[in-house]
Write a structure and sequence with these properties.
The chain is an alpha/beta fold. It has helices at 3-9, 24-35, 41-50, 52-60, 69-83, 90-97, 109-117, 130-140, 160-169, 184-192, 227-233, and strands at 12-15, 22-23, 104-105, 122-124, 177-181, 196-199, 222-223. It has two domains: 3-23 and 103-233, HAD superfamily/HAD-like (Rossmann fold), CATH 3.40.50; 25-101, Putative phosphatase, domain 2 (DNA polymerase, domain 1, Orthogonal Bundle), CATH 1.10.150. α3 (41-50) packs across α5.
Length: 236
């Protein structure tokens, strides 16, 4: 299906957030650096993020009870500090854990979302908890129409309950919902649930020359370099 065909069929857009809409690595590294801890700040940010998928998997498998992303981020952070023999003041650690509420948007995100809003509802579909997404939106000026979080469904992406739950809450069949993400694995899981898919690569997500998930041309409904190009492709 062409982008114009997708534009006719789709009635709402849902977005992955971490890495797709906001630059988590630079934001986290900057705050770690500002604390003056004896660590490589970008590497520390990478290690913190690397704990994200295993922590969600522990919840998925029942090794942890349901724990929101703030709670999982704190567990990962505590582990990183223990591994490095660091014992900063609790207030400092607690405040750093909230850095994920203060992430900076990619340069095209706000204007691109505003452009897309002229034609479609634009919504988060993130593993981030609702309070995190609310604070992030206010901090970065992200003009969401509504916030949809994995927290609402008691599941983390890529569980199908998240994608299908979003379509249900939007009162739309999955085929009328377009999932936008910088991560092919997220899009493949959405497509398996019947959602349309738009790939917006973020080559700097993991820093210059950082690893990106492989993908095959033609496997997603729309591919765009940034949100402004996505809006143009969808006729917004």
């Amino acid at each position: 299906m062409t982008a114009s065909g997708v534009a006719v069929q789709v009635r709402a857009l849902v977005f992955d957030v971490f890495g797709t809409v906001v630059d988590w690595r630079s934001s986290v590294a900057a705050e770690v650096l500002a604390l003056g801890w004896p660590v490589d700040a970008p590497a520390f940010a990478d290690a913190w993020r690397a704990g994200y998928a295993p922590a969600m998997q522990a919840v998925r498998e029942g090794r942890l009870p349901w724990t929101n992303i703030d709670g999982l981020h704190r567990r990962i952070l505590d582990g990183l500090l223990a591994e490095r023999g660091l014992t900063p003041p609790e207030a400092e650690v607690a405040e750093l854990n909230l850095v994920w509420h203060r992430l900076a948007a990619w340069p095209d995100s706000v204007a691109g979302l505003q452009q897309l809003k002229t034609r479609y509802p634009v919504c988060t579909l993130s593993n981030g908890n609702l309070r995190l997404l609310l604070d992030m939106a206010r901090h970065a000026g992200l003009p969401w129409d509504t916030l949809l979080s994995a927290e609402l469904f008691g599941h983390y992406k890529p569980d199908p309950e998240v994608y299908l739950g979003a379509a249900r809450l939007l009162d739309l069949p999955p085929a009328q919902v377009l999932m936008v993400a910088a991560h092919p694995s997220d899009l493949r899981a959405a497509a398996a649930c019947g959602l349309k898919t738009a790939y917006v690569p973020r080559p700097l997500e993991r820093g210059p020359g950082g690893w990106m998930e492989p993908w095959t041309p033609g496997e997603f409904d729309v591919v765009a370099d940034d949100f402004s190009a996505l809006a143009a492709a969808l006729g917004a």
